[in-house]
Amino acid sequence: MPATSQRKFQKNSIQGQTSGKTSDRGAGGHPFLRVLIIEDNAERIACFRAWKPGDVHFVLATSPGPALGIIRRDRGLIYAGVMLDHDLVEQSICASEIEFSGTQVTTSIIENFSYEIPILIHSMNDAKASAMAKRLISADFSVTRVPMAVLSEQRLHEWLNEVRENWRYLNGL
Q1: How far apart are CA 73 and CA 28, in angstroms?
Q2: Alpha helices, H only, the chain
Q3: Domain annotation for the chain: domains and CATH numbers
Q4: Which strand (E) or helix (H) includes residue 36?
Q5: CB neighbours of 114 closer than 8 A, spacing ≥ 6?
Q6: pTM of the model
Q7: DSSP-based three-state secondary structure for 54
Q8: CA distances from 151 to 1, 79, 120, 123, 136 (A)
Q9: Distance CA 56, CA 156 (A)
Q10: Half-sphere exposure of 138 toward its Cβ, with a 13 Å CA cutoff?
Q11: Under DSSP, is residue 62 helix (H, G, I), strand (E, B) or coil?
């Protein structure tokens, strides 16, 4: 790992730790791959759950408020990956949440998560997805953009395989 990346990770890792609890283990004692999904559409959530491999544990935030809370609580390197939508109004808990979107969630990710966590932006809002990707890439995050209309089980599994490899590298597995 280059020295600059190492320094940046050390700075971010002070804010959070990797999870190694035995309760975070799947079949065969292997660690679950924790992936944060920020998505408000019930049909998309059902697809993700149907496509989920056995060693993956999804943590779901269905509106901006809970997403921001999870991100601020689980700082550093807790999640192996993040799946991010932009337009998050379908399951808003209160009126003030309507003002928030993936844009604010992106800011919180940059401020609280290690840049070494890969991000999959699956938003259908092309302009906003592009803006989120540019901001994340500017902060050294690895970003994959696949609009939900073209995201398939195979494509999700390919991304999760990349996330799995990255997580193993980061954790020396």
Answers
A1: 29
A2: 3-13, 42-51, 64-73, 102-112, 126-138, 153-170
A3: 31-168 (3.40.50.2300)
A4: strand 33-38
A5: 9, 12, 13, 16, 76, 77
A6: 0.77
A7: coil
A8: 31, 21, 10, 10, 20
A9: 12
A10: 10
A11: coil
Q: Would you tell me the crossing angle of helices 64-73 and 102-112 to the nearest 10 degrees?
A: 0
Q: Tell the residue number behind the tokens 């803006």, with chain if given.
A: 131
Measured CA to CA, the distance from residue 86 to residue 7 in angstroms comes to: 30
Distance CA 119, CA 35 (A): 10
Beta carbons of 40 and 63 less than 8 angstroms apart: yes
Single out the residue of 73, 80, 74 nearest to residue 163, CA to CA: 80
pLDDT tens-place string over residues 106-148: 899 999 999 999 999 998 889 888 998 999 999 999 999 999 9
Residue whose C-alpha is closest to residue 101's, from 77, 129, 120: 129
Between residues 49 and 41, which one has the greater pLDDT? 49
Query: What's the Rg (C-alpha) of the chain?
Result: 15
Tokens 């808003």 map to which residue? 92
Residue 103: C-alpha distances to residues 15, 135, 140 (Å): 22, 9, 17
CA atoms within 13 A on the CB side of 130: 3
